[in-house]
Amino acid sequence: MSFGDCIFCKIASGEIPTAKVHEDDLCVAFNDLDPQAPTHILLIPRHHIDSIAKAENGDQETLGHLLLTAGEIARNRGFDEDGYRIVINTNSDGGQTVFHLHVHLLAGRKMTFPPG
Ligand code: 5GP
Ligand code: ZN
User: Fold this and answer.
1) What is the 3 state secondary structure string of 30-79?
2) What does the pLDDT look like over 84-93, one tens digit per residue?
3) Cα–Cα–Cα angle for 30, 36, 38, nearest 5°?
4) 27: exposed, middle or buried (C-beta count within 10 Å: 0-12, 13-18, 19+)?
5) Omega within 30 of 0 (cis) for the link into 115
């Protein structure tokens, strides 16, 4: 898929209007279309990375920033005490369906482990 066809690139650029829960120079966060928990937020890098499997050393700052930002959003929403889950599905067996790297932040209910 070319970046021009990437739905999350279009969300990041604003070409597809989406209510953002957070945005900064490196990342954008918005609610998942099909929430799997009372809070289900996706965090994406502004620049296209297919997946963790394709991430490179140069993506280190962005990847760290995505995790720290997920933690910050969770903290601001009061989830630190009860907890939450951060998920990065990767490729076919990992259940990845959108090939622009994204972090799922799931909160507001008890999670089970292992995931299905
Ligand atoms: P994956 O299965 O790749 O880890 O997660 C992709 C996620 O993106 C899914 O949870 C799906 O509901 C969400 N999603 C797919 N397309 C859109 C969209 O256009 N807008 C939003 N907000 N979420 C989307
Ligand atoms: Zn993209």
Assistant:
1) EECCCCCCCEEEEEEECCCCCCHHHCCHHHHHHHHHHHHHHHHHHHHCCC
2) 999 999 999 9
3) 75
4) buried
5) no
Please, which residues bridge with residue 41 across strands? Answer: 31, 105
Q: For residue 98, which atom of ligand 1 is closest to its CA?
A: 3
Hey, what amino acid is at 106? Answer: L
pLDDT in tens, 5-15: 999 999 999 99
CB-ligand 1 contact for 33 (6 Å cutoff): yes
Distance 33 CA to ligand 1 centre (A): 6
Nearest CA to ligand 1 atom 20: 33
- DSSP 3-state of 10: helix
Whole-angstrom distance, CA of residue 92 vs CA of residue 89: 9
